[in-house]
Amino acid sequence: MRPASVLSTGRVAWLSAAHTSLIDRARAVRGVARLALITIWVPLSVGFEALLLLVPGTAKIRWTRVIWGVLCRLLSLRIRVRGQRAGSVGGARARARGERPVIYVSNHSSWLDIPVLGTVLPSVFVAKGEIGRWPIMGLVSKIGRTIFVSRNRSTTVRERDEMITRLAAGDNLVLFPEGTSSDGSRVLPFLSAFFAIAKMPKVPGARAQELDDMPRYPDGLTPLIQPVSLAYDRLDGLAVNRARRPVFAWYGDMDLGPHVWQLVKWRSMRASVILHPALDPHDFPSRKALAQAAWRAVSNGAAALRQNRDTSPA
Question: Which of 43, 61, 64, 103 lies at a 20 to 30 A Cα distance from 137?
Fold first, then answer.
């Protein structure tokens, strides 16, 4: 006959395993339900936005924010914002009354950055061409008038000119100047080339003709640069530490599908965003100096968020 202590230990182990199994099943059901709601919401909302593309004005910009905002809600992703956004929704009327376009520059650690910033900022994204081939987010991005860029030097001039034209016409842009996503533990150096559309390079000789052929901003309408810090700091109500940060981070050669599936099974999440004071490119002697100033603001803000320090608005 087994001792009572052995039977008791076995019963505790069985109950613990059963409890774990129930939790896993509940998380799986939660994930399936969320994905089902997302697959219903996205085609309906994007279909409506496709109609808004035919309508002049800023309705399409406003509706894109609704699409991303509802998507965040379906993911149970709450967004906390600190600071003041530079610029307005934009549009041709805003440019006509002299409102400068804004280029928002942010750190980048996950595909989640797109719905988060898309909810907070009235803008269009500048994104890698491969995003256009993603399920769901690729469709939203295309209808949301995302500017897709490649690493092909033969298309660089065309892509640059499109960005300048869109800014002058009324759009604001979101850029990720790290050039790639990271593991979220630090902000990678900003590439100064991303700031060329805000601070035109001064080049002599043969390339001067290239600058002459570039689209131009109307007088007084060169873009402002607003640094934006973003971090995911709550997961199921608990602070996100180094061990939990990989839940959000999506970078390198990670597959998108498995990462999305693991993420939708969590009960709740929170992203925190700091909107830093805008920078005027005219105040900096070079693109490199401008990129460094933007990087310092974003890096310091992201570090404060990762360390769960209170970040009151400026």
Answer: 103
